[in-house]
Each structure stands twice: as C-alpha cells, then as structure tokens.
Write a sequence for this structure.
C-alpha cells in the first residue's frame, strides 16, 4: 500500500487530464507547422491553363432542324 493513497489517486487524475491535452496540443502544433511549410500550389485546369484565366469555349453552331416542307 502506498504511503499516501490520496497522492496516488491525484497522480492518476492529473495524468488522465494532462496526457490527452498534451497530445492534442502536440498534434495541433505539428499540423500548424506542416501547413505553414507546404508551398501554395497554383490551381491548374485539366486543359493546361490557369484556372483564373477563363476563356470562353469556341462557338459551335447547332445543326438546323430539317425543313419538313421540302
């Protein structure tokens, strides 16, 4: 039996609170440092141009309906 049973309980309670909080702080710090080191990448469309340069599509005339009178 420990000399101070209340001390063992308090140590267990403190560790139960401190361990998860320190893990969340460590993960948050790692994520923040990771996102600040990653360079911004430009958004490139699948056509090879910059996504900010919007060019209209070429006009394709639609086929005229057949004239039923002819």
């Amino acid at each position: 039996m420990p000399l101070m049973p209340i001390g063992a309980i308090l140590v267990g309670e403190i560790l139960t609170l401190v361990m998860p909080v320190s893990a969340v702080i460590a993960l948050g710090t790692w994520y923040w440092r990771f996102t600040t080191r990653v360079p911004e990448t430009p958004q490139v469309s699948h056509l090879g141009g910059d996504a900010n340069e919007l060019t209209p599509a070429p006009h394709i005339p639609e086929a005229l309906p057949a004239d039923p009178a002819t």
User: Anything to note?
Assistant: The longest helix spans residues 5-37. The chain has a mean pLDDT of 75.
